[in-house]
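ingest -> validate -> predict -> emit
validate: passed (alphabet ok, no gaps, 245 aa)
predict: started
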Amino acid sequence: MDSVELRRRRALRTLVTGAALAAAAAAGAVAVLIWQAEPGPRAGAAAAGPAAASAAAVPPSASPSTVVQAVPLPAPARVEKGIPVGYPHTLAGAVSAAAHYTEARDLLSPDAVPGQMRVMAGKDDENFFKLTSLAIADARDWRRLLGLPAAGGSTGSDFIALQVRAYQATAVSADAVDVWLLTTQTPTVGGIQHGTGVFAIAAPVVWDGGDWHLTEKKVTQSPVVEDPGTAQADAAGWRPVAYQH
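emit:
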């Protein structure tokens, strides 16, 4: 069984090496991608070194979910600089913001990061600068690891398609929610799709200035990663999501 080697950056998300990403996606592998620095329990056995982890392929016996109903996520009120914003001050609103921000991020465009993060990180300058710096480094690493030129952005033939399939919410309060997102990610390079991998992403949000925004807060307790839409995912605490329009 192929493993997925993950290199953890200081924050924002863990990066997958280009070769491992292609192998993992082709094998339908699962892994944990975390936007924060401190690692918690991870799916799979620990790999060599403090900045690595491994993940097992989704078991072929995974059965479809028939118990847990999808949670409707409120639609954003408007779009600002290409980012959907305007969510209700509720738990569902926090999850919707985390999900929409995660899907809206251009993972291959370093130049697009400041504009996108200015919206997603809100008006807190320290939070904005930290997340922006890390996101730029992240985008550059993705380009390098996927064999793309250092400069550039997503195109019709080079992009990473990300879809949020389910969530878990922890440390819930009126103005802060630690949101975990179960996602599928499909890298396409030179018009060639490299399969789809299943990953969990931490996207904690805080209520500030009348909307939910991403925060650099560290989330250390990671969930078990399972194939979306299965009984195993239900049992692991994942709640399927359905977007409202």
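The two ends are 40 Å apart (CA to CA).
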